[in-house]
Write a structure and sequence with these properties.
10 helices, alpha+beta, 216 residues, single chain, globular, Arc Repressor Mutant, subunit A, 2 domains
């Protein structure tokens, strides 16, 4: 059953936690930062959340106006969930919490890492670089296609096929996270086929790590 617990505290922080402070709520919001998702996709991304608990969180967030449901124009299939304009304002808060959490200890295995989590880590780790020309990457991550682009001004991650791609890679979220955390793991990921690359490995290194390739 959805919870109606409240801190009964007029402080704005307490009121915010009344809305998004329940277990799994912020992780649902994390999963919707980059693209709308179906219930089944959220279940896949959050395998440790029971179906009924996830459904409760979705109902609560929808009731509070943080997310809403809609049908995609080209399908008669299930609804997708997406952030409302108010819910989208949580993005810098969630990203800041993600940055803060980089110094927290890792959970014991077995643990999960969703595609959205890995992509957020990529956005936090990869930085624009005036020394590197624009690079566009087609990324097949856990079966979903993303466009990752980097130029001298910004790094972008968008769902769907790129119009063109300098490189194409296929991998899983944990391998991508490991590559971003430890550049030295790239060669072993390629050799063990945990990452499949079409294109120049140097371009991939420039995308993920910039021109400072001496450490690789």
């Amino acid at each position: 059953m959805p919870t109606r617990r409240s801190y009964r505290d007029s402080c704005a922080m307490a009121r915010a936690l009344d809305v998004v402070g329940e277990r799994w709520a912020l992780l649902v919001i994390r999963e919707l930062l980059l693209a709308p998702q179906r219930f089944s996709e959220l279940r896949h991304a959050l395998p440790n959340a029971a179906s009924n608990l996830l459904a409760d969180r979705l109902r609560e967030l929808e009731h509070h106006g943080v997310i809403h449901r809609r049908r995609l124009a080209w399908t008669a299939g299930p609804h997708v969930y997406e952030l409302t304009e108010w819910g989208r304002k949580l993005e810098p808060i969630v990203l800041a919490l993600s940055k803060w959490g980089l110094d927290a200890p890792l959970p014991p295995e077995p643990s999960s890492l969703s595609a959205t989590s890995a992509l957020i880590f990529l956005r936090l780790s990869v930085h624009p670089d005036p020394a590197v020309p624009e690079i566009v990457c087609r990324l097949d991550l856990d079966g979903s296609i993303w466009t990752v682009s980097k130029d001298s001004v910004k790094v972008q991650v968008q769902g769907g096929e790129p119009a063109r791609a300098d490189i194409s890679i296929r991998t899983d979220p944990k391998t991508l996270g490991s590559l971003l955390a430890d550049p030295a793991s790239l060669d072993s990921a390629l050799a063990e086929k945990r990452l499949n690359l079409i294109g120049n490995p140097l371009t991939l290194k420039q995308l993920l790590y910039g021109p400072g390739l001496h450490a690789l």
